[in-house]
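Suppose you are handed only these lines of text.
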Amino acid sequence: MAANAPKKRVAIFGSTGSIGTQALDVIRANSDTLEVEILTAQTNDELLIKQAFEFKPNAVVIGDESKYDGVKAALSSTDIKVFAGEAALEEVADFDTYDVMIAAIVGFAGLKPTLKGVSKGKIIALANKETLVVAGDIVMKLAIENRSPIIPVDSEHSAIFQCLVGEARNPIERIILTASGGPFLGKKPNFLVNVKRDHALQHPNWSMGAKITIDSATLMNKGLEMIEAKWLFNLAPHQIEVVIHAQSIIHSMVQFEDGSIKAQMGLPDMKLPIQYALGFPQRIKNDFPRLNFKKYPSLTFEEPDIKTFRNLWLATEALKKGGNVPCVLNAANEIAVWAFLRNRIGFLDITAVVEKTMEAVAFIENPSLEEYFESDGEARNFAASLMKL
Ligand code: NAD
Ligand code: MG
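From them, the structure of the protein bound to nicotinamide-adenine-dinucleotide can be written out as follows.
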């Protein structure tokens, strides 16, 4: 950023999560160009209060309303505004006083505040992929109408975005999304049937929130990312390929119409795509560890095993069918992962719940926002009843 340029004012939705805390690390290291305007958290009041004292935002939101009094009392010596509850997320997203929204809430809950930020024409640093999976058509249309740049934070999509810089006149032939394969790469159903929560939470390359870690183990994460890529880069399903690349060094690739392929590489560290989104169009200098190719003498690539990891197949079906199907897939998956994390269902049951829910909820070709909300609710209820929750 040019000397004396005003600081970018950042609103972090989901500041206590894996992405949120890493975004704050980036802001802490770049306090000459970035400052915090809004922080939001669902339940972790202690961390939210600590963050508020350090970063001195204008406003904080605690989702869990029973914690409002505690947060308000803790911050009473400051002039930080304190809000609580779901509606407050949209209220603060409507503020004029921030420039960039980091959308780092997990799941469907991120949709409404992100839509508000988009309708205000804010720069959106988008981590919350579920927002695009559920209602990508509506989000992208609103973004164009309001000139709201959506800059991906998801590492694969950040990689593609970076490969596309300078290529505005060159159509994409296809993209190649890389997948680590997760902790159960190469395993078969007879192994997966016995997998427990704690094992599934051990990701080989990335440290992330619980929901996305399970999605990475089931490969649903890559399926959600295919749908996310469709909307971000305006692609047809046949232009999106997934390849297993266990080392997570190539973060994804773009192939152009001359057959040339660009890849973006680096050590797996989410702070990189986060700071790229915050600095764009400039890169921010840092002292993160550098990739040493000699430590990675072989980078490997293989076909995903969609027979075993059927979630990837289901998500590909949802991508092709479109309409409300990705929304239904997402809702069923959210609730099934929730149940798996509480040891209420087995690992392979996640896929069964998603598949049965996709079969049960009626197809809507061009849903309105209201219909997306209805499909989400219907899918959640159906999935919950399947699992007797
Ligand atoms: P996380 O579980 O660590 O954090 C989620 C954040 O959202 C927390 O601050 C929590 O308070 C808030 N939150 C949770 N439920 C909420 C609700 N109902 N209403 C409002 N706020 C709520 O999750 P994460 O790993 O940081 O992931 C956040 C998003 O970023 C997800 O959509 C995920 O897919 C995406 N993402 C994460 C990573 C990663 O490395 N963690 C990488 C790529 C994409
Ligand atoms: Mg990703």
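What can we learn from it? DSSP finds 16 helices and eleven strands in the chain. The radius of gyration is 20 Å.
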